[in-house]
Amino acid sequence: MSRYLKNNVDELEKFEQIALEKNDMDWEKENEESSLYKSFSLETKEGLRYYHSLDDEYLLEVLKRTAEKLGNSPAQAEVFWVWRSYIKKRFKKWPYALKAAGMSSRSGKNGKTLQEMRCEAEEYKNLLKELRKKAEEMCRIPHPQEIPNLAAQLKKHTDSWNKVICDAGIDGHFFEKHGKLFQIENLDEADRKDLDSVLKLAYLLGRPPLKSEIPQKQRESLIKRCGSFRNVLFQIGLEPVTRINPFSSTKICETEEGKHRTHRIEIQDCYYQVLNQDIQTREDLMQLYQISKTLGHIPEKKEVDVMLRRRLQDSCGSWANAIYQLKYVKKGNKKI
Description:
The chain has about 325 residues and is mainly α. It contains 17 helices and 2 strands. The chain has a two-stranded antiparallel ribbon with strand order 1-2. The longest helix is centred in the middle third of the chain and has 25 residues, at about 115-140. The protein is elongated.
């Protein structure tokens, strides 16, 4: 911490202690002549300077420390006015700040206690662990309707299935590590023909096929033989098409029991291997890869030549999917 920050932190802590002793969290808030107001109010240059020197994490720590003292999510009136004004300016609304700090939006003495929040956090952590185990078994992201009991318990914490998936860390990297992919030995002639037809379809489409694009009888036979659709594609060196934001609009338990909601897949909203690349696309992807190496990070649109970006968006379906191809370029995947 810089000397400037430390000196101001120490000074503000002294003022806060006085406010606590007076049991007045608004102490000197309206006194424009006080040193507290001059140094820390957002209405002054000094106050704004100090506010901008603090990062989000520090302000959230203030909330957490206050919660520890109170034993519950702090209401606005329970927080010293300087911190209150900083937090509200940074996070826009008080409930947003509480959520960012991992607390219940039900604040004050009538809200949840810190112990209740910790118990809920531990319960959510265990439920996410159970969901990861289920995803590992299925080798894909489960739909909430497929695991109704677990979904009902998760709904107590959030109604967004996309948030649950993100919190559980179930993404491409998860399946690379836990996908249970293995090469099937001693495939019979019928299986080989089915896999060959899937590969031909992939190159006809220019990407791995969706499950729905494979004839049902053939699809069911291959999944039974290989254990999962992901492992079916693994046999022919492909990976499944995945949504960039899976289940983004899905609410937990939003449909009646027994009714299944149909999910449309828009390819432009997905990640997938781009097959049948022409020479220009190969060169463009290699150029993009070299740019990323030079920059030391995944390039943003503004960091790439406009014409190069447009060509890649056309050939890969979207800029996000063009960036996705870099992992195959890095691996030297011969299918690209």
